[in-house]
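For practice. Any example?
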Amino acid sequence: MQKRNNKNYWPHAILISLGLIVLACIYTIVEALKNPVEMDTFYLQSYQEVDKNYDKIKASQENFEKKYDIFFEVNGEQNGILHVGKNNNIKITISDKEQNECSLNADIKLLLTKPETNQYNQNITESQLEKCGWFFSAIDVEKIGRWQFQTKITIGEDVGFFTYEANTTHE
């Protein structure tokens, strides 16, 4: 009488799959802990301040959007591309919808960041104001990929928050 040599590998595959699922969960938790919600920079404030004043922030944002138009240019183009290792130029133009003229009394805070990490954050200061445009120049980008400009614009009592997406290329 011969023995049958049929081996069933399904139990092994199921155990290996469960092990991989557990490892994926551990990896997800570790990555989430590296970038906690406290590190979110969208409103350029701590999350406690945003949580406490969210209704005021939202109302101010709506008032701002009713009164002003914002135009973003990267390296001279509205859908401009950042260049790695080069001086990049940003221009923000603000126009008043009611008076059809530019508003020159704005305070602008600009943060360049990668969405997935705060390691490369750069607070950018304006270099000049000219013809209704705020110019930010000599911005160096270290890494290829997706970047965001997070902006807080204050004009009088109105505060607006804007995010502009930008990608990089090598040249």
Remarks:
- The domain at 40-169 is CATH 2.60.40.10 (Immunoglobulin-like).
